[in-house]
Please model this.
Amino acid sequence: MLSIETIHTFSAAHALRLPTGGTEPLHGHDFRLTVRIAADTLDALETVLDFHLLEGAVEKIIAPFRNANLNDLAPFNVSINPSAERIAEHIAQQLQHILPTLDPAAPSRHLRLTEVRLTEAPNCLAIWTPD
Model:
């Protein structure tokens, strides 16, 4: 198995909804997102996937988050708290839907998302991995 990673940054604000009611104060972060995908075999170019294709797919997913209040955006505007864990999970779910479209041979090569890491603040990160 071989894997690649791309790293992305975006600034956004959020306020977690507290179990006791209300929300914590609205505050911002410079999020750092790392996405890792793997494949059992390389493609015709001898790559896991063209880095530019992966970067473009991730950028489409996070574009609405840039300089936004995450509490105002789906799926965080209803019942899902915009915690680092849930943001990482949301990005992973979106990318899992897009990934097969980036390479027609993805299923035969077992191209898959293996990790999403979202750093909210120095030394504070959430990690999503598939079940």
